[in-house]
Amino acid sequence: MKTLIVYAHPEPRSLNGSLKDVAVSTLAAAGHEVRVSDLYAMNWKAVVDAADFGGCATSPLRVIPSSGGAYDAGALTPDVTGEQEKLLWADTVIFQFPLWWYTMPAILKGWVDRVFSFHFAYGVGVHDETRYGERFGEGTLLGRRAMLSVTVGGPQLHYTDRGINGPIEDLLFPIHHGILYYPGMEVLPPFVSYGADRMSDGEFEDAAKRWRERLLTLETTAPIAFRRQNSGDYEIPSLRLKEGLETPGRRGFGLHVRD
After folding, report:
1. Rounded Cα distance, 164 and 154, in Å
2. Start and end of every Flavodoxin-like fold domain (predicted)?
3. Domain span at residue 193?
4. Apex 219 CA angle, 214 and 220, nearest 5
5. Is a pLDDT exceeding 90 seen at residue 45?
6. What is the rounded distance in angstroms from the CA atom of residue 100 to the CA atom of residue 171?
7. 233 in a domain, yes or no?
8. CA–CA–CA angle 227, 230, 233 (5° rounding)
9. What region, left, alpha or beta, does residue 61 occupy, with left being phi > 0 and alpha being psi -120 to 50 degrees?
């Protein structure tokens, strides 16, 4: 297995840094190839601007056509093309980060904004009466698996259906479905470490043990059963889920997961 770990935390001695190190050592000991994109150590540029697209940048700047033109011309910046090459090399991608303000750190979002360029991660495939492009279960990254390893500050009960923060599945849906599943990756259930700010040494050892166990089952873990866009579940071109396919009473994000 070839695994890319995209790691986003400014402190190497943090819980996130320790979990990243556990992943590297566990996977390497099991005979897998591992590469790490340590975004803070790389001093990753998080903002999209005209400099990303060289001579393909439009004036005034329109990000989507500039991004697609630069990708087609092989003119994206070396840092971006390097990360795209890593994604194409990998068959599994792990994202290790803290949940800050209910989402990923800005540096990781900036990695997505720049690396998931037009014609690479989106804007691929044909649009006709039966298809709406290759996305949500199809696309450039089809055949790869992705998983989030996320640390959160609060206890697990805060991230449930009646918890003040809402279900963790809902908070992660935009990342799972809108970023990872969109370009074709199969998304595995997340590994969530709760109470990150108050974790004792003993609790960390328990978390590290659970993390090792998850890592050694990456190849056999069933992915989240998101509905494929072009499989017949959605009306085209409205992309609304057809009536009667959901479990009675189910609403919201859960509509887009098969039973």
Report:
1. 10
2. 1-215
3. 2-224
4. 80
5. yes
6. 11
7. no
8. 50
9. beta
Q: How many CA atoms lie within 13 A of 102 on its CB side?
A: 11
From CA 125, how far away is CA 48, in angstroms rounded? 24
Model-wide pTM > 0.90: yes
Q: Kindly state the tokens that stand for 189.
A: 């259930």
Positive or negative CA dihedral for 176, 179, 182, 183?
Answer: negative
Q: For 217-221, which contacts have Cβ atoms below 8 Å and span 24 or more sequence positions? A: 218/1, 218/3, 218/92, 218/145, 218/147, 218/188, 219/1, 219/92, 221/188, 221/189
Q: What is the pLDDT of residue 107?
A: 98
Tens of pLDDT, residue by residue over 152-206, are 999 999 999 999 999 999 999 999 999 999 999 999 999 999 988 888 888 889 9
Neighbours of 92 (CB within 10 A): 22
Query: Structural domain tally of the chain?
Result: 1
Tell me, what CATH number does 190's domain have?
Answer: 3.40.50.360
Token pair of 184 as six digits: 């074709």
